[in-house]
Amino acid sequence: MGKFKFNGHSSEDFNLVIQTPPTYVYPERDLTNNHIPGRSGDIIIDNKCFKNVERVYQIAKGFKKGTTYYENFQTILDWLNSSNGAYARLEDSYDSDVYRLASFQNGGSIVNYFDEAGATEIKFNCKPQRYLFIGEQDINYSGALIT
Fold this sequence. Notes:
Radius of gyration: 21 Å
Order of helices and strands: EEEEEEHEEEEE
Structural class: mainly beta
Number of helices: 1
Shape: flat
Largest sheet: 9 strands, antiparallel
């Protein structure tokens, strides 16, 4: 069973279960296609960058006795909206060597299973880059300077 961490909090903190692993979405090159009337073929301009990608998690949660459907998911929505739409760090156990910068911007709907459990889809809008954790490690150099 996988987990993800967004803006400093883990899906485990909220007792969320990821129902299926997310699919790997690779970034789309940012291209501009222009058609000239009377000419065959388009002119393709490479804007030399990539578009954002979407990372989607199908999650479910069982409710504790004495809690309501609204209480359970309002806490999760407060966490997801804690970055106020700005980019925050997103990590998951399915791609454990890297993290992404992601924004939660989407609304959605939550299925209520008889006030016992609920399920929803969480979508993150991510920058196209993936950042290696190893890049955050300090490297101590003790060699001599070359002049």
